[in-house]
Write a structure and sequence with these properties.
Strand 1 (about 155-160) and strand 2 form a beta hairpin. This protein is mostly helical and about 475 residues long. It has 19 helices and 4 strands. The protein is elongated. The two termini are about 45 Å apart. It has a two-stranded antiparallel ribbon. Strands 3-4 form a two-stranded antiparallel ribbon. The structure holds arginine. Arginine (ARG) binds near residues 31, 114, 325 and 326. Arginine (ARG) binds near residues 27, 31, 87, 113 and 114.
Length: about 475
């Protein structure tokens, strides 16, 4: 189906648009994604116009019928959305008018594409956030399940990528759970701020028709209306907040990808990605590469780029609307697509990877219990600083003898400090080390189990909320 070429704004123009300008100006190639929310907005607008007498009831119904048909045609791919139509807002109006006749031209009364696009984006954003937090919830469930299954697994914990202290693998897993909780909170907070209906702002000064904005808000599922017409058409904070939250989220996933990639190397062998989440090499037959995690890490770059891109577009722009703002859509859509996929791929990789308990425990180096040894002396009444010195010397001795700390004999311990007694043996095990750290937030078994229980509780509350 082709349209008449005449542009809605053609009245003032004598010349036709240069082809390259038309192509440059058009957003229909990407804002077609907004067609459903654009039509939803127009339905509410049609009803609001009838309520103030701009449309008769008969005209309203004819337009509503026409909008249904436009939606069906676009959904079925029957409408050619070509550059000459400029954007989705004009495409819908042009096609509507072809279907219902000149009355279709009444729908834009008191509305501008400036408030229309702000509305469409907020409606679309609502779905984007819904889909994002659902995927976060699904990843969180994968993590809780994994933390439960591997509660016995003790591994080296790292600072500076040097072995530091033994930790539970589940403690490491739960670290990501709590990061995701903050990420989720950022998306949900952003949704609350974006929950304001901009229609009625017109181009910038407000509509000259007394449309009932509260009615529009309730028709479109918003809890309130925007307070200021200038702000409403100039604002893209709602997209910037989504992009910021997405950037932080991707940064979190990326760090875990990095760890898992290192840990799946033959040198570490702590984990193995499932074959279904890996790919092979075209040349080296033995290779199983963690491409899926590498790509989550790599795509973090484009999500950061998208945030930077929109921040840069918005900076220095005079109020209110300028066409620069059309550049908001591609970074936004690309971020939604990327974040949704990254969350799904990451969850799949985590759920199916194997965790090699034996490799993790044999990797614990002979010095990793040094802090526990110092803590032992603290409990015997020595100030921590002094304990640090004593144990530092013991570490040197062990290194010189090529032994693990726990393999030094009591005599050696006692030569370093007379506070050492036979019970020193008890503290020299990784299990004991983690068991000692059973305070809230620690890596002890009960402490981790409490985190897991709190996590499940949160997910259950959300499901109840969604159903209630
Ligand atoms: N396609 C435009 C955009 O995405 C719609 C708003 C156009 N408004 C205007 N005054 N030209 O920003």
């Amino acid at each position: 189906m082709r349209h008449s070429k005449k542009k809605p704004w053609a009245g003032r123009f004598v010349k036709t648009t240069e082809a390259v300008v038309e192509r440059f100006n058009a957003s229909i190639g990407f804002d077609r994604r907004l067609y459903r929310v654009d039509i939803e907005g127009s339905r509410a607008q049609t009803k609001a116009l009838e309520r103030i007498g701009v449309l008769t009831a008969e005209e309203r119904d004819r337009i509503l019928g026409g909008l249904d048909r436009v939606e069906e045609e676009i959904a079925a791919g029957k409408l050619a959305l070509t550059d000459d139509l400029e954007d989705i807002h004009m495409a819908v109006e042009v096609r509507l008018t072809e279907i219902v006749g000149p009355v279709g031209g009444k729908i834009h009364t008191g509305r501008s594409r400036n408030d229309q696009v702000a509305l469409d984006e907020r409606l679309y954003l609502r779905e984007a956030i819904g889909g994002t937090v659902d995927r976060i919830d699904r990843l969180e469930a994968v993590l809780l399940d994994s933390a439960e299954r591997h509660i016995e697994v003790v591994m080296p914990g790292y600072t500076h990528l040097q072995q530091a202290q033994p930790v539970r693998f589940s403690q490491y897993t739960m670290a990501l759970f709590w990061m995701l909780e903050r990420d989720r909170g950022r998306f949900v907070d952003g949704a609350a701020r974006a929950d304001a209906m901009p229609l009625g702002s017109g181009a910038l000064a407000g509509s000259a028709y007394p449309v009932d904005r509260a009615f529009l808000a309730s028709e479109l599922g918003f809890s309130r209306v925007t307070e200021n017409s200038i702000d409403a058409v100039s604002d893209r904070d709602y997209l910037l907040e989504y992009l910021s939250a997405a950037a932080i989220l991707m940064g979190h996933l990326s760090r875990f990808c990095e760890d898992l990639i290192v840990w799946s190397s033959s040198e570490f062998g702590f984990v193995a990605l499932d074959e279904a989440c890996s790919t092979g090499s075209s040349m080296m037959p033995q290779k199983v590469n963690p491409d899926s995690l590498e790509l989550v890490r790599g795509k973090t770059g484009r999500v950061y780029g998208n945030l930077t891109s929109l921040l840069t577009v918005m900076k220095g722009m005079p109020l209110t609307y300028a066409k620069d703002m059309q550049e908001d859509k591609e970074p936004f859509f690309d971020t939604v697509d990327t974040v949704w996929m990254a969350l799904e791929v990451f969850a799949g990789a985590w759920a199916t990877m194997s965790v090699h308990k034996g490799r993790m425990s044999t990797a614990l180096d002979g010095m990793i219990l040094a802090t526990d040894l110092a803590d032992y002396l603290v409990r015997k009444g020595m100030p921590f600083r002094a304990c640090h010195q004593v144990v530092g010397k013991l570490v040197r001795t062990a290194l010189e003898r090529g032994m693990r700390l726990e393999d030094l004999d009591l005599e050696t311990f006692q030569a370093a400090s007379d506070r050492f007694e036979a019970d020193v043996e008890e503290v020299l095990s990784p299990e004991r080390s983690t068991a000692l750290r059973d305070l809230p937030g620690g890596t002890g078994r009960k402490a981790v189990q409490d985190q897991i229980a709190a996590g499940w509780q949160r997910l259950a509350e959300r499901i109840k909320e969604a159903e209630g």
